[in-house]
Design goal:
Alpha-Beta Plaits; four-stranded antiparallel β-sheet; globular
């Protein structure tokens, strides 16, 4: 590398590294606190069996989810769809689990939610659970 290019690269490196680092979370307004909102989307169908029933969902919620998140949670009914590799669109009933975790970052939220995802996949023979993690300011 030519000396002038090496010098420019050396000058640009700190700028590039700073651009790649995550920005600090914004300050929360008075009366609120930093939190992570975790959303988990659970599909309601099974491959070679009837769809997951409301009773099975309530049992999973009581036996697995509530003990993992005893401070509170919200569930919503949904309908999801996705495209298979062959182009076919599939649609199914789903459940959305919403967790608001004050003082917890996304990595810690994922670590707490992961066993719930694994239990769902094992119990209902699912390949995945879609999860979304986002920073938020929350107040009660």
């Amino acid at each position: 590398m030519r000396p002038d290019r090496a010098r420019r690269a050396a000058l640009l490196l700190p700028v590039l590294l700073a651009a790649c680092s995550a920005p600090p979370p914004p300050a929360c307004p008075d009366g609120t606190t930093q939190a992570t909102v975790a959303e988990a989307y659970f599909g309601g169908s099974r491959r070679d069996a009837p769809d997951i029933t409301e009773a099975e969902w309530r049992d999973f919620l009581a036996a697995t989810v509530t003990p993992a998140f005893p401070d509170g949670l919200t569930t919503l009914d949904g309908r999801g769809q996705w495209r298979r590799p062959d182009g076919t669109i599939l649609s199914e009933a789903s459940k959305l689990l919403v967790l608001v975790l004050p003082g917890v970052d996304a990595a810690a939220a994922r670590a707490r939610l992961r066993p719930v995802e694994e239990a769902w996949k094992a119990r209902f023979r699912h390949q995945s659970v879609l999860t979304v993690y986002r920073a938020a300011c929350v107040g009660f």
